[in-house]
Amino acid sequence: MARSSADSPARNAAAICSATSLQRGNAHFAANVLAARGALLSVLACFFEHGRWGSLLEAGVEGQILNAEDQFFILMEAGHLITAIRGMGAPEAGLCYERAESLARSLNRSPSFYLVLLGQWRHSLSIGKLSATLQIAKRLYALAQEQNDSTLLIGACAALTCTLHYLGDFEASGQYATRGVQLLRSLGARSPVVGIVDNAAVSILYYKASFDAHIGDITSSRATMSEALSLAEELKDMYGLAAALTFAASLEIAVRNLAEVERYSLDLVELSTRHHFALFLAIGSIYRGWARSVSGDTAEGILWIEQGIRDFRATGSVLGLPHYLSLQAEALHLAGRTSEALEAINEGETLAERFEQRSSLSRQHRLRGVFLAAIGADVAQIEASFVAAIKIAKEQKSVSLATRAEATYAEYRRQKASALGGRGFRLPLW
Questions:
Q1: What is the reported pTM?
Q2: Topology annotation, domain 118-227
Q3: Which of 77, 196, 201, 285 is the most buried (most CB within 10 A)?
Q4: Is 285 left (phi over 0), alpha (psi -120 to 50) or beta?
Q5: Domain segments of the chain: what residues?
Q6: Segment 186-218, tens digit of pLDDT
């Protein structure tokens, strides 16, 4: 037990959380194995003003004062638990991390400040512009370097590679992912944990797998993803496992492996239901619906996707939404609702521009070209969409995206030259 239960009511609450979450080392047994995050959060709720998670009561139960260390502990535990249950975009988590920053500075402990920055980075990643998120990730990396701590550096590399990935800078993302994996290998340790939300070792592996897929090495990508999944299970890191399942399904979507997408999405839905992961449950529904749609059951598939997107929006997060809208667009197109598919693509592109999520831009332009060709739109518009898709993919140095865009454009030109065009263009979605 991390704290004595005899000092104050605040320490009693901290002791309860420590005993249940941390008593088995880094496994966070109650949260990850017993799925008791809701109960743990309820223990902490009594120390906050009603409905205001960023505002601690001035005194604890029986009027005893919370010292700075107690306040910091409670704020960070609450922020982590809210993030896991309600999603990284939950405003209550952001309030907790904002309040905890001043306490971390007063405590003058670099590891404490690092954890605050990590929480702020997650929240910014989900709701803000990625250029601002990148600045937080760079602060994390600088702090980890100052501490000369390999464990902290792995977490900082994970933050940088994730942010750069969504910014569409796949090359830089891959460099930090490779650096993080090298550090992980050099440690020889299986559990470099930062906070109780997820495990840096797991996340650095699945981002490395994503980078390998972009450079066209699907074999290495699958091997690294398998390692990430196995490590999450070994560490009983259920939140990290949910994130890894999300990335595993996404990689299989890219190569149209429907059986694996279905398997991963079902696992994700089951895990997220059991652990009350609202964000990942929504994503699992979207992926399951996409797999159903592409398999031919578009009516049921679209219902799953629509419900998943509604639930995703309800978490407050926007990270990845352009990608999920493109999956919805594919399903709508397959159902013969191409005009609605174009609306979904347009919304996704608007969000991508607003929040600087450039990782999906090439895919969006390619799909727009497919949809425009299907409805017999202006040739100049169609070709401009394909040219933009190829240009963006090459600028981002994504071999897989460039190859796909070039192949679709080549098929469009073949059909056009064969006089098969007009409203009769049938171009592959992949």
A1: 0.87
A2: 1.25.40
A3: 201
A4: alpha
A5: 1-108, 118-227, 351-430
A6: 887 554 544 445 688 899 999 999 999 999 999
